[in-house]
Amino acid sequence: MIEPSSPGTGPAIAQSSPLPAADVVVELSGVSKVFGLSGGRAAGGTVEALTGIDLAIHRGEFISLIGPSGCGKSTLLRLVGDLTSTTSGTVAVNGKSAERARLDRDYGMVFQAPVLFDWRSVQKNVELPLEIIGRSKAEREAKAREMLDLVELSDFTDHQPWQLSGGMQQRVAIARALAVDPAILLMDEPFGALDEMTRERMNLELLQIWDRTGTTVIFVTHSIPEAVFLSTRVVVMSARPGRITKVVPIDLPRERSVDTRELERYFELVTEVREGLRAGEGGAGLAPAARVRAEGLSA
Amino acid sequence: MTSELNEPGLQPVTGVDDVPDGVVPDLQLSRAEDELDQDLEAYQPPTPRPAAAVRRAWVRPLVGFVAIVIVIAVIWEGTKWIAGDPWDVNSILGVPVSIVHVPPYHWTPVNDINLPHVWLILESFLETDANGETLLQGLIGAALFTFRGAALGFFLGASVGLTLAIVLVHVRFLERALLPLLVASQTVPIIAIAPVIVVGLKAGWLSIAIVASYLTFFPVTIAGIRGMRSADPRAFELLRSYAARDRTVLWRLRLPASAPYLFTAFKIGATASVVGAIVGELPSGIRDGLGGTLLTAMQYYSIQPERLWAAIAISALLGIGCFMLVVLAERWTLRNYRPTELGAAP
Fold first, then answer.
1. Percentage of the residues of chain A whose pLDDT score is greater than 90
2. Residue A298 half-sphere exposure, CB side, CA atoms within 13 Å?
């Protein structure tokens, strides 16, 4: 059971690392996030979204954040990407502040929806970040073609995004995110809106891309099998306030395939993550009656 | 536990060349599935429409328009047949006829002064004045003069409207402070504003254009503000994650996203600018445009009502023409946008 902790003094479950500091890409220490502090609302209207988050992510890792709705996993991702700011604690990315890292264009962002620009062709959508960072036309075109090749959409460069299926659109979004060679790929439930079949295929493709590019991935998901299948580590979170309850290292073979989902170890890990989620549900902060109910459900 | 915990992260990142054998079948499997994906799910874009289809797209609305004009003319004459003034017609468009008819009912609004016979209006186009110029020629000249003022006013109004929208979107304080004033500006009748502008700036094409722009800018501002905020909030976050500057967000996201909204406002503005140009001509004493023509025709209305109707018809056609120009520009500009509704009219 995790004791409720104040920011900065949280339990060090995820912190321990034998690696040299140079290999740490993202380091969160004592991070908390409270919504509703500023603005017109009364003090009673605040929501503690995250508390006592400590996590170190190493170069080339594939980290999944999993937890119930409202556990702050998306907020955590947005904190790393400097799309929102911390209330307390620090976020260091490649030894810099998250804002510095954003200004240095260290991030690639993929959302649950593809968020493609309707008026731009598939090719031009992938070129967009390269335009923003001021690459030459020739460079942009070559890089975008390379990225579209990577996601196997070379035949669709001149299509408009709305002419593609949902899975294909999401692949364009991934190509766009990878176009700037980001140090960190931030993915917020990227396959959440896809059907199960497409989702599993996209999982395989994402792993191949990760293999080829070697980028560090932080991946938010609702799906336990998806988290276990993709990750090197699964970070299990619980809600109210959002915190890390468990970190499950995934010791499956690095090369994963459809067969991986049939390995005994895979099922053990899925069970471990599921139990971690349940422990979080019935954990600290609940009234005894609620805890009994939660434990009864998990029995 | 700790070393185990981080072990996966310790593994060197493998490039595509040193992927162990075990992964190869999956790559192939994934490709095969991928082709399936593309075959099953890919939406096939519509092939370019053949020339005949494009022609049909233009001919149909035109035929429909002419048909409706004919229907209106038939209703017009039908009402006069039932309740108008007594008919004693010797010729229609140069064709000698002999129609003598006393309508069974009498309804004053459809008498020969309010609603002159349709053929009289058409015939009036060919009446010549003292200089040997037909009324139609005169009206076309006047329409071109008014078009110049309206077009200038449209571009002026659209530019001012869009600039205002851009400023108001970026400075929230100004939006709250200025928007009520802009709304108030539109509640003042244009006919009251026109003399102020015309007298203030001296009668001329510039004052006419400014009166026209007064009616054009407002819908553009309102639609622009709405359109520039219409994009997916995540699209703004995406640009933020690339550390894009405000100017980049404006050019790459806000303006393209607002284009469909802006064109709706441009259509309103195009017709309004014609009204504005005509009204602008009235207090200026300029007689070269449709405003002057309408003013003259109004003075002679009780004697030659068909001349006013002829001027009204040309004014309406000018408005339709300006609207269609915007529709053409819209079709070209939005050709790559997601179609909103299959076969939707502009």
1. 25
2. 17
- Both B95 and B218 in one domain: the answer is no
> Between chains, do B37 and A156 touch, taking CB under 8 Å as contact?
no
Domain containing B302: what range? 135-333
Q: Is B128 left (phi over 0), alpha (psi -120 to 50) or beta?
A: beta
Q: Same domain for B229 and B172? A: yes
Decide if B142 contacts B292 (C-beta within 8 A).
Answer: yes
Nearest chain A residue to B258 by CA distance is: A119
Tokens standing for B216? 């054009």
Peptide bond before residue B233 is cis, with ω within 30 degrees of 0: no
- Residue B300 carries which DSSP code? T
Tokens of A190: 């990227």
What values do phi and psi take at B11, rounded to 5?
A: -60, 135
Q: Do A204 and B336 touch (CB under 8 A)?
A: no
Residue A46, classified by CB atoms within 10 Å of its CB into exposed (0-12), middle (13-18) or buried (19+), is middle
Identify whether B126 is part of a domain: no
Domain A60-86+97-283's class?
alpha beta
- Indicate whether A282 pLDDT > 80: no
> In terms of domains, do B87 and B152 share one?
no
Let me know: does B290 contact B140? Beta carbons within 8 Å.
Answer: no
Residues B102 and B148 in one domain: no
Q: What's the pLDDT tens digit per position in B277-334?
A: 999 988 878 888 999 999 999 988 888 899 999 999 999 999 999 999 999 999 999 9
* Per-residue confidence (pLDDT) for residue B10, from 0 to 100: 39
User: Which of A57, A75, A211 would you mutate first to test chain B, the one with the most B CBs within 10 A?
Assistant: A211
The one-letter code for the residue type at B127 is E
ipTM computed for the complex: 0.80
Q: What is the pTM of this model?
A: 0.78
The pair of three-digit structure tokens given for residue A55, joined into one six-digit string: 């996590």
Closest-CA residue of chain A to B41: A165
**Chain B residues inside the 8 Å CB shell of A17:** 2, 6
Q: How confident is the model at residue A261 (pLDDT cuts 50, 70, 90)?
A: confident
* B216 lies in the same domain as B294: yes
Token code pair at residue A224 = 């336990």
Among the residue ranges A12-21, A170-179, B244-253, B255-264, the one predicted with the least confidence is A12-21
Is residue B127 included in any domain, yes or no?
no
Same domain (yes/no): B327, B272:
yes
Alpha carbon distances (Å) from B292 to A267, B67, B126, B281: 86, 31, 19, 7
Q: Are A162 and B44 in contact (CB under 8 A)?
A: no
Cβ separation of A167 and B239 shorter than 8 Å? no
Contact B31 A152 (CB under 8 A): yes
Residues B176 and B298 in one domain: yes
**B109 domain-assigned:** yes
Instruction: Provide the edge-to-edge strand list for the sheet that holds A47-58.
Output: A47-58, A24-35, A88-93, A96-97
**Hey, of A74, A78, A112, A128, which one would you mutate to test binding to chain B, going by the most B CBs within 10 A of its CB?**
A128
CA-to-CA distance for A190 and A188, rounded, in angstroms?
5
Between B5, B232, B248, which is nearest A249 by CB? B5
